[in-house]
Amino acid sequence: MSGENIVVDTSGIIAMYDEAYPEHAPLTEIANATTGLLVVSPLIVAESDYMLATRLGPAAARQFAEDVSVGAYELAEWTQDYHAAALAIVSGFGDDDYIGMADASIVVLADRYRTTNVMTLDQRHFRKLKPLWGVSHFTLLPFDA
User: Fold this and answer.
1) What is the rounded average pLDDT of the residues 73-94?
2) pLDDT bracket for residue 88 (50, 70, 90)
3) How many CB atoms lie within 10 A of CB 69?
């Protein structure tokens, strides 16, 4: 997996910046070991900024912003077509187990970067979501590593 791209969810980012999470060490190890890209959507960047600032404080949010700005993460382009594709994914699920645009953006970017690797703690949603090109499931990191 070291050369494969990984699309990163907000929960994965929070766990990598918060040492209190039991997944902190395995996620950090995976991130440091990969020679592929750690891909984030602008939706995930915004959500992570808010979550880091409210949970860990402004310094953590600034550190993440700096890490994105220096290329530790691949900040993916987000177009109207990608947004429409994400909306189609959201629309395919009911209100009882809402899949938001941030999660749907990960599915769209996994397709664009041709990977099944998703760094997330959100097994409830990502075990239901399927890759867009016919692969049967996502590889959820760190759980499926």
Assistant:
1) 96
2) very high
3) 10
Q: Residue 67 annotated as binding?
A: no
Residue 103 annotated as lining a ligand binding site: yes
Where do the domains of the chain lie? 6-137
Q: Is the pLDDT of residue 1 over 70?
A: no
Kindly give, in sequence order, each residue whose CB lies less than 8 Å from that of residue 79, ignoring residues fewer than 6 positions away: none
Q: What's the CA gap between 14 and 23, in Å, rounded? A: 10
> Among residues 7, 37, 48, which one has the least CA distance to residue 139?
7
Phi, psi at 14, each rounded to 5°: -55, -45
DSSP state of 122: -
Beta pairing class for 38-40 and 117-119: unpaired
For residue 75 the two structure tokens come to 């900040």
Only one residue has tokens 């594709």, namely 85
Q: Please state which CATH class domain 6-137 belongs to.
A: alpha beta
pLDDT for position 134: 83
What's the confidence (pLDDT) of residue 3? 81
pLDDT digits (tens, 9 = 90+) for 26-58: 999 999 999 999 999 999 999 999 999 999 999
DSSP code, position 134: S
Q: Are 130 and 20 in contact (CB under 8 A)?
A: no
Residue with token string 């760190």: 142
